[in-house]
Design brief:
- With about 400 residues, the protein is α/β, with parallel strands linked by helices.
- The protein folds into two domains: about 120 residues, Urease, subunit C, domain 1; about 220 residues, TIM Barrel (Alpha-Beta Barrel), CATH 3.20.20.140.
- The strands form five sheets. The protein has a six-stranded mixed β-sheet. Strands 13-14-15-16-17-18 form a six-stranded parallel β-sheet.
- Strand 15, helix 6 and strand 16 form a beta-alpha-beta unit.
- The longest helix is centred in the first third of the chain and has 16 residues.
């Protein structure tokens, strides 16, 4: 892989919620990982094989969609649409996490079938990056009859995620808790459907049920589409340490109220951001950016904090070696600026104003996968490739 230099960075969002802004103007990438973040050094430009002039714009980690429902390939049977994953890349998303391949026509609901589907999806997406996006596939849907040897085999074959508990036949804490413990034993991250019924076959899940089941992630606290009540949300915020997921395909009023509550309780480090698409709401290529805008424009969450929730927070919860601009992290990067016509004069101020930023470039493992976003407004300033 090439040695890559990003220079003239005007603002660097770190992905670290406790230190969201770095005072640095250069990122050095080698072999697909970040080797150095710091002040510009001319010697590096001479050694670099690729040089990108960021022209004073903002660089962030690649956004992570914490809640996606892929199946196989870049096709969604839910909306009968091709290319939805690649389209997310043009919205700055470089990783999508499967909440379960639940939309597969004829999805198997027996232990052997769900195990096979999870292994197949995990292995398929490990070798397939539509548009450059990294899909963490194989979100196991829990069905009755799964036993420890199934989890052992799936972990050995690359399954790392349990999709939304509640979308299969395992719905109650009595049935779910022992399987969740097994999943965690074998290194899997577990998410749980929360709130009202979102699709036929799912069910309403209360805060008490989530707390008893003890997943790692409270899926779509603001609804998919039916949100939990604020009283229920407060229980989940105050009585658990689980990640709190806010999604685009949900209730925006509850998203705002939950964000205000999270800030008041000082637990913004637990917030992650998902799309929950494809869904009945549709395919939303800019869904992650739109939630970032919602939080930054209407809550006490700053734009840089919202970006960190959609990057470093999610990477930490799922054990991914990306999401922050630090040495040894995978070089998944987004270059953005204020969109033309915005009242903001840079990416962060335009986000605070509620404007979608203009994405200039997207890099995955240090390689440019988008040089001009087809989905965001054009940026005022555009990064340029000065050496390749």
């Amino acid at each position: 892989m090439a040695k890559v230099l990003l220079k003239n960075i005007g603002c660097m969002v770190s992905g670290k919620i406790g230190e969201p802004i770095y005072q640095a103007d250069t990122i050095w990438v080698e072999d697909g990982v970040i080797k150095r973040v710091g002040p510009f050094e001319e010697v590096e430009e001479k050694e670099a094989q690729v040089v990108i002039d960021c022209t004073g714009t903002t660089v962030t980690p690649g956004l992570i969609d914490s809640h996606c429902h892929p199946v196989l390939g870049d096709f969604t049977p839910r909306q009968k649409q091709i290319g939805f994953l690649e389209s997310e890349v043009h919205g700055g998303v470089t990783t999508a996490i499967s909440a379960g391949e639940v939309h597969l026509p004829g999805r198997p609901k027996d232990p052997a079938g769900v195990k096979a589907l999870a292994i197949l999806a995990a292995k398929s997406f490990a070798s397939f990056r539509p548009g450059g996006i990294k899909v963490e596939g194989g979100g196991l849907i829990l069905e009755k009859g799964l036993v420890e040897k199934d989890f052992e085999e799936m972990a050995r074959e690359g399954v790392r995620i349990v999709g939304e508990v509640g979308l299969g036949s395992v719905k109650t804490p009595v049935d779910a808790e022992p399987l969740v413990k097994l999943a965690k034993k074998y290194g899997m991250t577990v998410m749980m459907h929360t709130g009202g019924t979102s699709i036929p076959g799912s069910s309403t899940v209360t805060a008490e049920e989530v707390i008893k089941t003890n997943p790692d992630v409270i899926s779509h606290i603001n609804g998919g589409p039916t949100a939990v009540s604020m009283k229920e949300a407060e229980k989940l915020v105050k009585r658990s340490a689980m990640a709190i997921e806010i999604v685009h395909c949900g209730n925006p009023k509850v998203a705002v109220e939950v964000a205000q509550m999270v800030v008041a309780h000082g637990v913004l480090n637990r917030v992650i951001i998902g799309n929950d698409a494809p869904s009945g709401t549709g395919v939303i290529p800019l869904g992650i950016l739109r939630v970032i805008n919602l939080l930054a424009a209407l809550t006490p969450v700053t734009p840089e904090e919202a970006i960190c929730a959609a990057t470093g927070n999610t990477a930490r919860i799922y054990g991914l070696n990306r999401g922050t601009l630090e040495e040894s992290k995978e070089a998944d990067l987004v270059i953005m600026d204020a969109p033309m016509g915005s009242v903001g004069d840079d990416a962060l101020s335009s986000i605070s104003a509620g404007d979608i930023p203009g994405i200039s470039m997207v890099l995955v493992d240090g390689e440019i996968v988008v040089s001009k976003s087809r989905n965001t407004p054009p940026p005022v300033r555009h990064a340029s490739l000065v050496k390749a």
